[in-house]
Amino acid sequence: MNLNGVHVEDTFAELFPMKYSRLLVTAATERLALTSAREATGFGTSIIMAPGEAGIERTLSGDETPDGRPGAVIQVWHRDEENLQNALLGRIGQCVLTAPTTALFDAGEDQGFPLGKQVAFFGDGHQRQQERYGRDVWVVPRMDGDFVIEDSVSIEDGVAGGNFFVLGETQGSALQGTEAAIDAIDRVEGVIASFPGGICSSGSKPGSEQYGFMLATTNEAYAPSLRDEVDTALPDEVGAVYEIVMNGVTLEALEEATAAGIRAATTVDGVVGIDAGNYGGNIGPYKIHLREVL
Amino acid sequence: MNLNGVHVEDTFAELFPMKYSRLLVTAATERLALTSAREATGFGTSIIMAPGEAGIERTLSGDETPDGRPGAVIQVWHRDEENLQNALLGRIGQCVLTAPTTALFDAGEDQGFPLGKQVAFFGDGHQRQQERYGRDVWVVPRMDGDFVIEDSVSIEDGVAGGNFFVLGETQGSALQGTEAAIDAIDRVEGVIASFPGGICSSGSKPGSEQYGFMLATTNEAYAPSLRDEVDTALPDEVGAVYEIVMNGVTLEALEEATAAGIRAATTVDGVVGIDAGNYGGNIGPYKIHLREVL
Amino acid sequence: MNLNGVHVEDTFAELFPMKYSRLLVTAATERLALTSAREATGFGTSIIMAPGEAGIERTLSGDETPDGRPGAVIQVWHRDEENLQNALLGRIGQCVLTAPTTALFDAGEDQGFPLGKQVAFFGDGHQRQQERYGRDVWVVPRMDGDFVIEDSVSIEDGVAGGNFFVLGETQGSALQGTEAAIDAIDRVEGVIASFPGGICSSGSKPGSEQYGFMLATTNEAYAPSLRDEVDTALPDEVGAVYEIVMNGVTLEALEEATAAGIRAATTVDGVVGIDAGNYGGNIGPYKIHLREVL
Amino acid sequence: MNLNGVHVEDTFAELFPMKYSRLLVTAATERLALTSAREATGFGTSIIMAPGEAGIERTLSGDETPDGRPGAVIQVWHRDEENLQNALLGRIGQCVLTAPTTALFDAGEDQGFPLGKQVAFFGDGHQRQQERYGRDVWVVPRMDGDFVIEDSVSIEDGVAGGNFFVLGETQGSALQGTEAAIDAIDRVEGVIASFPGGICSSGSKPGSEQYGFMLATTNEAYAPSLRDEVDTALPDEVGAVYEIVMNGVTLEALEEATAAGIRAATTVDGVVGIDAGNYGGNIGPYKIHLREVL
Asked: Which of C90, C97, C124 comes nearest D210 by C-beta?
């Protein structure tokens, strides 16, 4: 299959369930909401060794938020509820409570985890539970006024591991194609790409052939400098590859993001192939076939 | 003492020793170096509940880096060596190894922690130890080419807890004054301000009067909404306060940053006072007296 | 009338017709489209002494553009068709043709001005007229490949001079409120705010009382430092004012932007009033009454 | 000559004298100074059809500016003094006077053009001439307080037309190499690169072979899509080229920028050549030989 003259491999991504929370950071201006959201979602690339996976899903205007102020929807993911709760306590308590002019609301559906109540202990007895904007919130005195945080937030079941590879003639072309894909994915509701700038340059396979203690190691079949040493998956004309890894609130959102991302990547000069990562179908119960979603 | 018509309180910040590493992320362009550096230093505000404190110190031109490419100097801090090593393994392995076109070098002096060797296990046997640019490095095959990482990095003794408060007539003025201070601090070598945008809106006191499980709670004397309930430290005309918290490679660097930051804050309309946080002198062995450094 | 506790003056903005073109800059990535769009709309604040008024209206995903690449919709305005054509030739020929990976399409309705044909003379005989993406375009060889530009672009009748003032207790609060308003206006389709960052700090009256050669001079009734010298319009508690000036493709778009901007400004701490500029109703045939649109 | 394995052509750039002003925009924060500076230097790529050439040279901390606030040094260039004065009146009056919290100072040496006095007529009789910070300034009442502008600014003789070409295997690699070069050039004092993002994708030759009315047209020898139609200068492996065009306060500054930019470009994967533009030595009296400055 060719798209804009670019070969799309007949393959699929393998996906698996994970837990996530979807939260809304509002602030006096969008710039300030993003300052907090970026800190709160930093060091959030992969649960392999990061404290949860996290990213900014999209920004909202004041017309779309409880307190009428601009905001950023963020997602935080982890393998189970306990790890996710710990990640949330740290990320919200350290990066949203602490950021200028912010408030924090749930952006999901089934509020069950009392994050707000716990963060509000920072008020040292001066915190107050109130109803504001039709929500059950805590009001916590801090130096720049009062911090408002919703009492409980949702923890829901989502889908992780959406992915595809962008193969380019050169590193510059592969990267430009991947950046174009990220531009497109950024507009799909419900999806985050948690690697730096949304892009992973060190695509991996599960486990290791050499080191029992490693949870993931380089996907050597796609490493250009190992082309002559291993059973390479790289066509001759490929000089570099980037992987996009995505989590989404539904499989459908990830299918839409995969299709939009691939279409965008193929518009870029020097992009010569699209591929994806799967490991015999043993990693997870969901599949996204690249050619089917396009 | 008045500076540009702004009252500077006769007080001091209390500081204490912590461990840090100072690392250099290079990439094909400065934009790409910063993409990695921002992810690697995210969720790094305070060790109270974040996995280390981290920030971008400054950017370097290719003339100043081992591989001739632009770079960003980052710092990662923790209370002791073991915690710092864990933070480094996660932050570099998850946010620099994974980022497009990056390399990682030590920017300190006594390379003792074999971070590079450990991160290089990602190569699954294909990693190679080499000398490049006069440095002992590992070359790790990844999808966009080879990742270069210095074999060992330094862990050194620095000073944490530098701080001052910016008091404004309104929230907008206090924030603008604090942002001006951060602009100035960003130019002081050796110093980071790890809170979101460099700014802490939830200045705290150690411990809690109400909750034994809390390591830090709101500094109620500086909370405007508690003005009538507690023994406030806020003059009548103050509507909001922000705190800047800084770590530095030396006490002298923090003194310079404190002075530069305060001078900058006082140039902003609506800033009416400068103060600092200390807790009876019991927190740490170092002091920075605001009036002395100005 | 009070909105979020902020007084909204019973007044109106006066508006008048102007000519505009609405164009689409696409590029390999959104970042590159914006690099070109920012240069092309720079030095475009007011036709009083700038070569047209210009701004970025919004960004588009590849799904919404002719060539499937991300893009930025820009508007360029002038008092008449001849001046607008000159502004377009300069801005597009110098800032879009010259920018990496760009293409230029019309985003209006009645293509009548052969901008593309004229810019394509740059090809020095090597330009080619073609149909691509269902559009009549010129293909112009340049150093990074071929530049594609639509043969003709639209020149249409729009409405200029939409405005309101944000009054704050301090400069910092007035500015933060105005930035919140710009965040909201940025999301309204069809509208640009052409001043730096969308904000005018030097609101003016038409003409001058002192200098016949000046087309516009300071609106002294709103200048805080002239409060005691002139017949001021400033309540006692106001320390600073910013004006937002907007052009829109229809009066309705400007009404929507005015309402959204005012609502946003009133959510900011320290904003104490909203006002607008009119000059006896003699400047233009259209009016936007602040209280009516809210 | 090879640099990092990249061929550097044995050629030179041709340069010529032009007039420039070097000005300093200060503001409450660096972000606000840059908002004004970007608008003031926009639509400033080439005097062929833009109102002067303009760019941001560098930013300054408050320690380096007259009013102790952060600032941005900008340059504006034109072919003669009269055109430059017009460009300055428009750019400063429309983009600095109008921007939040700004002030404007000369950053040159021989203040001879009374820009400040003329812009200050905006005060409509309320402007006041004063000495502040050891400078002769005008204080002009505006909505957010008083605008301060130095009475006179310098107009000096500089050197324009510094240039080199970055040749890449693909468009993505050529662009990444050129962006690396711009990162390096941004750090050289006294130099601006006025095209969008500092980069010109439509390198030109003077005049036209086909159209007498065109001052510059495509440099077809470097256009990849004309490779088979014209006497190409492109080696087989080159897929795309970008040009960097620079103006500088001295020839030495441009030599330094040329060397730094070329060195940086050659560190990027997929960059395969460096070249430069000259037209028989008839354009200007100065030359920069690429190999000599390296």
From this structure: C124
B270 touches chain C (CB under 8 A): yes
Taking the C-alpha atoms of residue C209 and residue A231, their distance in angstroms, rounded to an integer, is 82
Q: Which of B6, B29, B173 to mutate to test the interface with C (most CBs of C within 10 A)?
A: B173
On the question of pLDDT at C281 being above 70, the answer is no
Mean pLDDT of B252-262: 98
Cα distance from N-terminal residue to C-terminal residue, chain B: 10
pLDDT of A130 reads: 98
Contact between chains at D29 and B176 (C-beta distance less than 8 A): yes
Q: Provide CB contacts within 8 A for C268, sequence distance 6+.
A: A28, B172, C173, C176, C177, C180
From D28's Cα to the closest Cα of chain B, the distance in A is: 6
Q: Which residues contact A200 (CB under 8 A, 6 or more apart)?
A: A45, A242, A243, A244, A245, B98, B143
Dihedral sign (CA B263, B268, B269, B270): negative
Question: What sign results for the dihedral spanned by CA atoms B280, B285, B286, B292?
Answer: positive
Across the interface, whether the CB atoms of A243 and B143 are under 8 A apart is answered yes
The percentage of residues in chain A with a pLDDT greater than 90, rounded to a whole number, is 96
Task: Select from C39, D183, C70 the least CA-distant residue to A177.
Answer: C70
DSSP C116-169: HHHHGGGGTT--EEEEETTEEEEEEEETTEEEEEES-EE-EEEEEEEEEEEEES
- Put simply, the answer to whether A168 touches D168 (Cβ < 8 Å) is no
pLDDT tens-digit profile of B67-94?
999 999 999 999 999 999 999 999 999 9
Say yes or no to pLDDT of D125 above 80. yes
Region of D270 (left: φ > 0; alpha: ψ -120 to 50; beta: rest) is: left
Read off the pLDDT of residues D7-51 as tens digits, 9 standing for 90 and up.
999 999 999 999 999 999 999 999 999 999 999 999 999 999 999
Q: Is B35 on the interface with A (CB under 8 A)?
A: yes
Burial of residue C109, with CB atoms counted within 10 A of its CB: 0-12 exposed, 13-18 middle, 19 or more buried? exposed
Dihedral sign (CA B78, B82, B87, B89):
positive
Residue C279 has a pLDDT of: 78
Cβ within 8 Å, pair A269-D239:
yes
Q: Do A68 and A62 meet the contact criterion of CB atoms below 8 Å apart?
A: yes
- Residue pair D184/D260 in contact (Cβ under 8 Å)? The answer is yes
Return the residue matching tokens 């002009």. D140
Helices (H), chain B: 30-41, 81-95, 115-119, 171-185, 251-265, 290-293
- Chain A positions in Cβ-Cβ contact with residue D175 (cut-off 8 Å): 172, 176
> What are the tens digits of pLDDT across the range D229-284?
999 999 999 999 999 999 999 999 999 999 999 999 999 999 999 999 987 767 78
Say yes or no: ipTM exceeds 0.95: yes
Do the Cβ atoms of A278 and A165 come closer than 8 Å?
Answer: no
Q: CA-CA distance, B30 to B36, in Å (whole number)?
A: 10
Please write the tens of the pLDDT for every residue from B209-238: 999 999 999 999 999 999 999 999 999 999
Of the candidates D95, D101, D219, the beta carbon closest to that of C43 is on D95
Nearest to A173 among D173, D177, D268 (CB): D173
- What backbone phi and psi angles, to 5 degrees, belong to C64? -110, 5
Tally Cβ neighbours within 10 Å of residue C162: 26
Please give the pLDDT value at position D281: 67
Are the beta carbons of B41 and A43 separated by less than 8 Å? yes
